[in-house]
Amino acid sequence: QVQVVESGGGSVQAGGSLRLSCAFVGYTGCVYDMSWYRQAPGKEREFVSVIESDGRTTYTDSVKGRFTISQGNAKNTVYLQMNSLKPEDTAMYYCKTEPPPGCPLKRVAPLGYWGRGTQVTVSS
Fold it and tell me: Which residues pair with 81 in a beta bridge?
């Protein structure tokens, strides 16, 4: 069974750091684009960062210079290092794994797979 497994959330004070981890398990036949999204209470889910299968990274403007996304040593594992955290970073953080074109899982889940989320709380 394929699934996205996130970990690493928690509570910190403003200015602190956290590292989130995400692993896509259950199928190792492809290399995926892996993204982080977040959703604060009462708000829509928003894009945070992505690392594509070729290593290219993109960040939303509000986290540039503070967050770093990187690939782990294990295949289809990704980290989100979050530094200089602000109260407005408080949200549930979700990892999304998207099968690339040509991957058999693309037919099964064309919009990708989501994890259940990990909570990040930043106090002022």
Answer: 19, 68
* Burial call 7-29: b when 16+ CB within 10 Å, e when fewer: ebbeebeeeeebebbbbbeebee
List the one residue out of 99, 94, 93 whose CA is nearest residue 112. Answer: 99
Give the residue among 74, 71, 73 at the shortest CA–CA distance from 95. Answer: 71
* Measured distance CA(29)–CA(90) in Å, rounded: 34
Count CA within 13 A, CB hemisphere, residue 44: 2
Distance CA 25, CA 109 (A): 15
pLDDT at 18: 98
Specify the pLDDT at position 30.
85
Task: Give the pLDDT score at 36.
Answer: 98
Question: Could you tell me the pLDDT band of residue 100, with boundaries at 50, 70 and 90?
Answer: confident
Cα atoms in the 13 Å half-sphere on the side-chain side of 79: 13
